Task: structure prediction
Amino acid sequence: MKSKNIPADIRSKSIKEAQSEIKDIIEKLESPEISLENSRDQYDRMMQLNFHIQSIFKQKAEEIKKPTFVEKKTVNKNKIVK
Result:
């Protein structure tokens, strides 16, 4: 699944919002009153939400992996040299 296939309303959600909606969907799916068609739609949405969460975590992991360069400074007698 590609992020462009994820609806905008899902892409705009935070991780907590997406997790909360997933919990709501699971409750609906466990209900005996849900129709087969509705359960499939709910399942598909849950998978999109899950993909969105994974994408956020992947993006954050890439940000963490990037090296952070700190300007090296040396002290030369009474002067700081960059």
Notes: DSSP finds three helices and two strands in the chain. The longest strand covers residues 74-76.
